[in-house]
């Protein structure tokens, strides 16, 4: 997309359903979301839309999207670092690729805090995703305590550096800056805060993977994104979309977030 003579990264609006909607509800939801966006005249090439259902919904979502030729992307909320074998409860990148997932969320703060996922595990999962041509959406973000102790950028920057340990400079990745204190709290970061950290994350991409990757990689903001605040984030030059939790479960609200261009000249 070219705006004011400048090439811009295609925005991505990603809906993380977390542990919500069973496979039958997922079918009805995806159908309605696609109709809603189509009826509203949404240009899917201008703003990409992706949904992240629970593992058990993926086959149904894949079948529906493929059969009805819907312009929605989809992916999983996690992936195993392992390829196959005696890893009870784990899902491998190979399985996700077979289901035609394009993306996988890795290192979400709920995995880091509730499942004690470490930077090393996040890095290994990213390698597993890339091995199967899945685009990892690498989540980084500071807690309220980190913010108080170290300021906004130190923890996300350190997490991204660790996450990129196994990533080559040809990799297709997405980064999501999600301050933990903003997730599900209704207390979103200001657009200026999001931009400040996103710019630092882009600098890490440039240092570690080079200018081309830094230029092409989309950096999302996540944390209490709603239709009322998305436009302000999208005006920021280093914010290329949003990872949306709660609001992604409301079709009208999520559609309105996707259609942020109604409110912003981008
Ligand atoms: C999330 O869980 O990734 C998220 C951003 O949640 P919410 O939009 O509900 O804050």
From TrEMBL:
Active site per database record: 108 (electrophile), 178 (proton acceptor)
Keyword Cytoplasm: yes
Localization per record: Cytoplasm
UniProt enzyme class: isomerase
Keywords: Cytoplasm, Gluconeogenesis, Glycolysis, Isomerase
One record GO biological process: glyceraldehyde-3-phosphate biosynthetic process
InterPro entries reported for this sequence: Aldolase_TIM (IPR013785), TIM_sf (IPR035990), TrioseP_Isoase_bac/euk (IPR022896), Triosephosphate_isomerase (IPR000652), Triosephosphate_isomerase_AS (IPR020861)
GO MF term set: triose-phosphate isomerase activity
Substrates-to-products reaction catalysed: D-glyceraldehyde 3-phosphate = dihydroxyacetone phosphate
Enzyme nomenclature, EC number: 5.3.1.1
Matches recorded under CDD domains: TIM
Domain of life: Bacteria
Record's keyword annotation contains Cytoplasm: yes
GO CC annotation terms, alphabetical: cytosol
Pfam families for the chain: TIM (PF00121)
Subunit structure of this chain's protein: Homodimer.
Reported function: Involved in the gluconeogenesis. Catalyzes stereospecifically the conversion of dihydroxyacetone phosphate (DHAP) to D-glyceraldehyde-3-phosphate (G3P).
PANTHER family named in the record: TRIOSEPHOSPHATE ISOMERASE
NCBIfam families assigned: tim
Family: Belongs to the triosephosphate isomerase family.
UniProt name for this protein: Triosephosphate isomerase
Lineage, opening ranks: Bacteria, Bacillati, Actinomycetota, Actinomycetes, Micrococcales
């Amino acid at each position: 997309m070219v705006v004011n003579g400048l090439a811009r990264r295609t925005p991505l609006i990603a809906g993380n359903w977390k542990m919500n909607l069973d496979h039958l509800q997922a079918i009805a939801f995806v159908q309605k979301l696609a109709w809603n966006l189509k009826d509203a005249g949404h240009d899917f090439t201008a703003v990409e839309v992706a949904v992240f259902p629970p593992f058990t919904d993926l086959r149904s979502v894949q079948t529906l999207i493929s059969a009805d030729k819907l312009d929605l992307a989809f992916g999983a909320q996690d992936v195993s670092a392992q390829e196959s074998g005696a890893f009870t409860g784990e899902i491998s990148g190979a399985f996700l690729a077979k289901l035609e997932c394009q993306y996988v969320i890795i290192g979400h703060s709920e995995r880091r805090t509730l499942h004690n996922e470490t930077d090393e595990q996040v890095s290994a999962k990213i390698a597993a995703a890339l091995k199967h041509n899945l685009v990892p959406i690498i989540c980084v973000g500071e807690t309220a305590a980190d913010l108080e102790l170290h300021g906004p950028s130190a923890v996300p920057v350190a997490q991204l550096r660790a996450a990129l340990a196994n990533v080559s400079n040809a990799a297709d990745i997405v980064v999501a800056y999600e301050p933990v204190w903003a997730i599900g709290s209704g207390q979103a970061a200001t657009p200026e805060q999001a931009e400040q950290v996103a710019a630092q994350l882009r600098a890490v991409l440039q240092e570690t993977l080079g200018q081309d990757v830094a230029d092409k990689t989309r950096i999302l903001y996540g944390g209490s994104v709603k239709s009322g605040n998305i436009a302000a984030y999208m005006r920021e030059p280093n914010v290329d979309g949003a990872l949306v939790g709660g609001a992604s479960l409301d079709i009208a609200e999520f559609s309105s977030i996707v259609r942020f261009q109604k409110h912003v000249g981008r």
